[in-house]
Amino acid sequence: MGDRPYVLLSCAMSVDGYIDDAAPERLRLSSAADFDRVDAVRASCDAILVGAGTVRADDPKLLIRSQARRERRASRGLPPDLTKVTLTWSGDLDPGARFFTTGESPKLVYAPSGTAAELAGRLDGLGEVVDAGEPLELAAVLADLSARGVRRLMVEGGGAVHTLFLTSGVVDELQLVVAPFFVGDPSAPRFVRSGVFPQSPERPMRLAEITRIGDLALLRYLAGSERG
């Protein structure tokens, strides 16, 4: 795969493209069956990436839930859990977040040069802070992950990270789950933000699979990369 991993972007959204509402509680867009499917996809990857905003808002563990899948990974000589990765521009990360306090696999934090040193001192060994340039360069992040042996990277959000990866043209596969309802709140976060995307009417993604999961629809797209 050259100097970057295969990138699989995973997201659940409402019919009108929202990934949450504006309420304090997290909006449930998926189902138990789909959570299990996502867990299986996680187990097929080497690392999982979310933005610092998702770490702050959702406090995710980013672990593989199924013990059987963890054991199968271990039997293949792989760590039971994925390497956790986050991107931060401001360095605003809580050392007590479950991103850092759960799981035994490495935790990698990519930050701009002006933020990295202070953040490394504040995290105090809970995760490895990597200087990703000034400003932060996604190509440097992906090259560093590849050098660490990451061959498949799962990206789980949020909207700013989805937009960054898609507009940068580095997404090989998009797994998009559509929930059967609307949110309709312009203050709520959406799947992507404004941007210039390489996938366009002239260069569309290829729909590789449609799967019904109860009343949810899973759309699996190959995003047009010649490498994918």
From TrEMBL:
Report the residue ranges that make up the Bacterial bifunctional deaminase-reductase C-terminal domain in this protein. Answer: 5-215
Keyword tags: NADP, Oxidoreductase
Give the pathway listed in the UniProt entry for this protein: Cofactor biosynthesis; riboflavin biosynthesis
One of this protein's Pfam families, by short name? RibD_C
From which organism does this entry originate?
Answer: Actinomadura montaniterrae
Which SUPFAM superfamilies does the entry mention? Answer: Dihydrofolate reductase-like (SSF53597)
Any one GO molecular-function label of the UniProt entry: 5-amino-6-(5-phosphoribosylamino)uracil reductase activity
**Name the record gives this protein:** Deaminase
Q: Which GO terms describe its biological process?
A: riboflavin biosynthetic process
